[in-house]
Predict the 3D structure of the following.
Amino acid sequence: MTALHTHPFAWIATPGTLSRRHLLAAGVATLAAPLARSQAGFPSKPMTLIVPFTAGGASDVGARMLGTELGKQLGQTVVVENLAGAGGALAVQKLIRAPADGHTLLYGGMSESLLVPMINPSLGYKPEDMLPVALAGSSPILFVVRPDFPANTMDELVALVRKSPGKFSFGSAGIASFAHVMGEVVKERAGMFMVHIPYRGGQQIITDVIGGQLDMGITTAANAASMIANKRVKALGVSAAERVPVLKDVPTFSESKALKGLQMSVWAFVYAPNNTPAAVVERLNHAINTALMVPALKEARVRLASDLPSLMTPAQSRAFIAAEQALYKPVTSRIKPE
């Protein structure tokens, strides 16, 4: 299988697609150009940033950090609204129904905004039903196991699983979650078979890995960093292009023979309803990108093992999502919804 590169800082371009390096290089030039005048009077009232999950999780923390700074940039209050349910679908559906005036936005993660609707069309929405405004952040994934698991690297894991197909299991936060899809990518790339165990949330996965009920968990570096530091779990590999500073002892997938060249990250975009005026989208994009570069937010992301997001224009954001959809389509087409 061709390497899937979902890390915002590097990919291998496939025929007919834009390289992320090209997108990012163009982004620097475009962001330096004069901005289009924003629509008169925007924003004219407090704004809502919908988060598809309950308070306290990674998405909620990221949205609240961004929302505070975004409000300062725009001169309006940004209210974070947690709307959990249906794997994030309820939040997406609310955004789609909202007035297309830029006052209602979604902090949309990879699962609910891209993977879930690709796998389960019955939810009634498609990735194209939302307008990506700006990349809000990303985090590489980790394969974590209990401390006494008989493998210490991804190559050792691959060799172990190949010897006993179907003996080992990995958990995800449910069918079509990022961990499920990325687990399938790794399985296919490495030529090994593990049993997928879907959970209703991410926290129980780590608990069961620690307790030995589950062999492996796939989670973000941001979620697992503290548990690795406390030696509650062991990380076999990280999907980043380079080693993560707060996880410097964890090798990248590319350092293994079986997964060389494979880079993946879980990302979040700020979305607006389709048909939001272009001038409003430009204003939001500039404000979000400016907020993300505030030193306090940059420092917080480093502590949380999150990537510093690339600054994308609205056009580059749309191209990015379209390319991600094309890259994941072969895998998601083989996954059946619950």
Observations:
- Confidence is low (pLDDT under 50) at residues 1-38.
- DSSP finds eleven helices and nine strands in the chain.
- The CA atoms of residues 143 and 218 lie 5 Å apart.
